[in-house]
Amino acid sequence: MQFDSNPVAVPTVEDLINLHPLTLPPDTPLIEVIALMSQGKNLAALSTSNLISLGNSKEGLYRRSPQISSGGAATCVLVMEGTALVGIFTARDLIAIVEREVNLGEIHLRDVMRRSVVTLTLSDSCNIFTAICLLAQNHHDDLPVLAPYGSLIGTISLERICWQLPPLNPLKLQRVSEVMRNSVVQVPLTTSILTLIQLMVAEDVSFIFLTAGGKTM
Predict the structure, then answer these.
(1) What pTM does this model have?
(2) I need a labelling partner for 68 at 20 to 30 A (CA). Which of 23, 36, 55, 215 fits?
(3) Are residues 114 and 148 in the same domain?
């Protein structure tokens, strides 16, 4: 079997970057963090109107803007002290906290953020496969992207990569049965939210199938 010789337009790292990640200071109450994540709102968004081309600028590749951005639910929060990235808090972290049944009203972002952050520094040598490898090796869904001088540019997510990556001919050589999951977590539609969260933590999954009357919803 031969591969198609036509070139495939693979997206660049710049194509994958979300320039409007949710960024919050460490002293933000966790209740407020959850609300902002569900709304996808960011009070300190990055603006594409202030892009700086890749080069030797000591200010980095992009400049910040006080513009407000909103969109779908955010899967992570970048914790910022001024212009410095000091931590990250993800939807997976939130699930683990809720599963412990702690008092969310007494917790601040600094108490639950991960201080060791895996990042990608943008350069001429990095590409989409660099981002994929970093995400896969560290079992993360979101990857903060920094300019060469350390300033935050945005994030790259697995979801965004999946949407941007074109169909590749090598995938035609594999059967669905070779890459599918052999087992999935299914629960009745009447299952409580707490039980769902506990199952997600126990099974280390990001989603669960809901069923009603023997049918998947």
Answers:
(1) 0.67
(2) 55
(3) yes
